[in-house]
Amino acid sequence: MLNIHRIGYFKYDIKELMARSDMEEDLIASFIATLTAKASRMSIKDARDYIREVEERESFSKETADRLCALLDRYSKYR
Q1: Which of 2, 47, 49, 69 sits 20 to 30 Å CA-CA off 57?
Q2: Model pTM?
Q3: Are 2 and 44 in contact (CB under 8 A)?
């Protein structure tokens, strides 16, 4: 699960990453909200699956998807 105590830092980093991505600007806010909800309420695996699903729709590159997955790893906590 996503570390709730560091969620502000996570959102800042993901916004910086998405600003440099190929995704359309009007889709970025909803993508970030969905990814944050999946990572904090469901699981990191579900969030990664969502990232790969969006990547398959060619909304952003594989490099961006890999960086997003690395970001999830950095801000997740294991129980």
Answers
A1: 2
A2: 0.86
A3: yes
